[in-house]
Amino acid sequence: MEKWVLLGIFLLFSRIGWAQNSMDHFPKGAQSIGIGNASVTLSDPWAIFNNIGALGKAPSEAHAIAGYDHRLGLNELTTLAAGITLPTEKIGTIGIGISNYGGELFNQQQIGLGLAKQLGLASLGIKINYFQTNIEGYGRSARPVLELGGTAELIPGLFLVRMYSI
Which residues pair with 149 in a beta bridge? Predict the structure, then answer.
């Protein structure tokens, strides 16, 4: 009986683990890449790309960020990203991000505008993206994507994180 309960718990939570791995989300920012894209709790300006909810805990100064990731010497695996974060006293931190991935045969572009605010121990955010994919021979498709995110530091070093994309 005990092993069936443990197996059930394992299967229940392993499905959540699958949802965290996505090939359409490439890490952005040196710290995020350095820790294997385990960046959903990082509250740096790169949160505009990695978890909009964490942006509410970002530093209280305006930041401009830019990144270039050129993997294996191939232009087809290159990611370019840039963004701006602007903290305000009344509505929270506003972030704008733009990124490009790929080469001539396959590429993806994304531009997004987000807002995040620290509310007590939780930092909540919302972001609207325009996401476009081009595939040579198949055409182009583009859609708006709504992202919702949040982080709460329950005790020092223990975070509760939620992210949704619609």
Answer: 125, 163
Q: 62-88 burial by CB neighbour count: b if 16+ within 10 A, else e?
A: ebebebebeeeeeeeebbebbbebebe
**33 membership: H or E segment, kind and range:** helix 30-34
Q: Are 114 and 127 in contact (CB under 8 A)?
A: yes
Give 65-70 contacts, CB < 8 A, sequence gap 24+: 65/29, 67/28, 67/29, 67/30, 69/26, 69/28, 69/33
Instruction: Tokens for 85, please give them.
Output: 């974060």
Cα distances from 70 to residues 23, 31, 100, 101, 160, in angstroms, run 17, 16, 12, 10, 32
- Residue 126 CB coordination number (10 Å): 18
C-alpha span between 77 and 69 (Å, rounded): 8
The residue type of 145 is V
pLDDT value of position 162: 80
Model-level pTM?
Answer: 0.77
Residue in the structure block whose two tokens are 């992202």: 147
Tell me which residue of 29, 56, 26, 27 sits closest to 43, measured CA to CA.
56
Residues 91-132 have pLDDT tens digits of 999 999 999 999 999 999 999 999 999 998 899 999 999 999
